[in-house]
Please model this.
Amino acid sequence: EVQLVEYGGGLVQPGRSLRLSCAASGFIFEHYAMHWVRQTPGKGLEWVSGISWNSGNIGYADSVKGRFTISKDNAKNSLYLQMNSLRAEDTALYYCAKDRGSFGVVTSMDVWGKGTTVTVSS
Amino acid sequence: EIVMTQSPATLSVSPGEGATLSCRASQSVSSNLAWYQQKPGQAPRLLIYAASTRATGIPARFSGSGSGTEFTLTISSLQSGDFAVYYCQQYNNWPLLFGGGTKVEIK
Model:
């Protein structure tokens, strides 16, 4: 079964850092691009960051550029999101998602985790 | 930066009726557009990619069309499980972007 499990969320003060992790199983992780998407309660989806299968192509939303760093460890079947200089507006449910296409350019997201909640508050 | 606009924000439909949802991009995204369904308390589910290709396991009552800047998701004969929020997403360029969503509610 293809599965993504996120962890690492929690309550953090503004200006501090947090690292999210996503454990992947049931597919050949090194073949696929991966993404982080977030959602504020009652609001819509916001793509946060994506990374290509070989980590050669990385993108960020303007709202997190320069503060967040995505990385992928194919040996550990894991995706990470290092979040620095956190702000109240970063409070959200963070989803890890698998790209539909193998190798190639990033596309749509066909497998999603259940998400991990990040709350930024003093 | 591309802006994705979905309309209407809310659509009230009776079970058994059809629904047409729109997504507009501020500049061409070719056919690099996906549609997702999200139910309360659940993660999104991929319905359509490449503007018109149904994802694995998606019923034929869901269909997508369009290219360039104008896209449509059509749901024929809505069933109880179809009442949800629907999002479009462009993947033609970084950053990937979602539309604001259309809530399909029971009339």
